[in-house]
Amino acid sequence: MLDSTLDFIKVGFLQTHPSFGKKTANVEEAIRLSRQVETDLLILPELFNTGYNFLDRKEVSMLSEEIPGGPTTTRLLDESKRRRMTFVAGLVERSEDCLYNSAVVASRGELMGVYRKVHLFSREKILFNPGRDGFKVYDLNSFKLGVIICFDWIFPEAARVLALNGAEVIAHPSNLVLQGFAQKAMLARAVENRVYTVTANRVGVEKRGGRRLRYTGKSQIVSPEMKILASATAREVVAKSYNIDLRMARDKYITPHNDLFQDRRTKLYSGILSQL
Amino acid sequence: MLDSTLDFIKVGFLQTHPSFGKKTANVEEAIRLSRQVETDLLILPELFNTGYNFLDRKEVSMLSEEIPGGPTTTRLLDESKRRRMTFVAGLVERSEDCLYNSAVVASRGELMGVYRKVHLFSREKILFNPGRDGFKVYDLNSFKLGVIICFDWIFPEAARVLALNGAEVIAHPSNLVLQGFAQKAMLARAVENRVYTVTANRVGVEKRGGRRLRYTGKSQIVSPEMKILASATAREVVAKSYNIDLRMARDKYITPHNDLFQDRRTKLYSGILSQL
Fold it and tell me: Most buried residue, A33, A228, B6, B12, by CB count within 10 Å?
């Protein structure tokens, strides 16, 4: 399918409504829904197999898996091999004593890598360990992929580092709860880096242990020129894809005089690495 | 007027339609219009006194001024003293052999500083010298102000460095020509840094030397929670202001667990200073 001479690929998202804790059912439902769309790359939400609103770290641990080896990753690898495509999907990773809010990159039967969420949101700080490996770019033969998860959106450095390292598409598995913030900000992430972004959010309400969370849906694919190429409503369960022209993400010129990356005046940005 | 114990200040923009090259008339018209609004801080557009669509560097030079000393800065200083307020306004600065696309900060009769545009857009690279002094924060007693000019918006590092250095309000004098890009992206600049942003754009069409530019108006004030507090249409000449609560920009907590600045994982951002 993917060929290094190709300029066009199909990228998509799956907007889901998982049932908390029902891992097998959630995975099978996601696989079934994913077959409704023909695509080279499909982004699934954050924690798509478990749900999000954990009571405590013990519950996180019970629903966690090793990567590779766990049943969710294995299932995604099998499906990706059969369909000669790539999944990016969020799940709880267990590694020694740590629990990560992770996303696997499963491409045509091969585990290309795991991204462990760097910026934890709200109670995630109690439930998960923060990722320590930073932001990685995966070379998928015909294009380069970066991954951020949900709240990473608010830190422009995350997408920036990925784009500077060559990412042409940024996958953004999410369980967004703040009304519309991320969806709007991802327009900026796309245009400021001249990359495509694919936000895969979930929908529905989870009420557990007195905590009620409503997920905002509105998954979207955004172009390097800030156009919303495909999007979902706030409530539907749906898969969508769009045929993107990778040349637009490879060409950083926004005017004949302005290459967005060459124009960066990095000597004037040094304060950006100060840790407050 | 301004007092270090104050939490509220009024900030505003003036959206203008200057006539190319008619400096005195443009300055007087801007001063006249500015009196329609009562505000502590008023942002005027980029190159508000000259217009934007220069034919060549010679023309830029002819319309340039020294700062301080030039008539535009002097006029703004006088007016700012009389009204005990602060102007941020764009004009061409001449300094030795250099010509900068600059913005003055004129506060209650005092020239607080000059920002020289760092990221030049399109033909500005032929017309101006790029600023070499970086991004500065001005302490205006009751609040801290940063300045970026127009195309600086697309580089998240500019607003980021200002916010990390304490800016609570980011002034954004502009002559925007790309449809709506900057106005949308400034929503991200506000929320990702938890600052107020004030974009002062101009309107109208300038056709000179075969080059036609339409300026997009839609000046706006954005809150740290991504709300558009005040805005103008694409064509009107208007001054607007809004009473902002500075405490919101001083408090970087977006959830009880998440201080946006303390949460930054700067060791994982090191690639951001690589110059391509």
Answer: B12
- Identify whether the C-beta of residue B195 lies closer than 8 Å to the C-beta of residue B158: no
Coil vs helix vs strand at A123: coil
Min CA distance, B102 vs chain A (Å)? 16
CB atoms closer than 10 angstroms to residue B69? 10
Q: What is the pLDDT of residues B165-210, one digit of tens each?
A: 999 999 999 999 988 899 999 999 999 999 999 999 999 999 999 9
Q: Which helix (H) or strand (E) holds A173?
A: strand A169-173
**Is A188 in contact with B191 (Cβ distance < 8 A)?**
no
Average pLDDT in the B62-67 region? 98
Candidates A26, A182, A157; CA nearest to A89 is: A26
Pick from B104, B91, B90, B106: nearest CA to B140: B106
> Given a cut of 70, is residue B33 above it in pLDDT?
yes
Distance CA A73, CA A63 (A): 13
Rounded to a whole number of angstroms, the distance from the CA of B248 to the nearest CA of chain A is 17
Is the ipTM higher than 0.90? The answer is yes
Q: pTM for this structure?
A: 0.96
Kindly write down the DSSP assignment for every residue of B120-152, as one continuous string: --TTHHHHSPPP-S---EEE-SSSEEEE--GGG
Catalytic residue among B23, B124, B150, B206: B150
Per-residue pLDDT reduced to its tens digit, A235-269 = 999 999 999 999 999 999 999 999 999 999 999 99
- The label of the residue with tokens 């809010």 reads A101
Q: Are B12 and B83 in contact (CB under 8 A)?
A: no
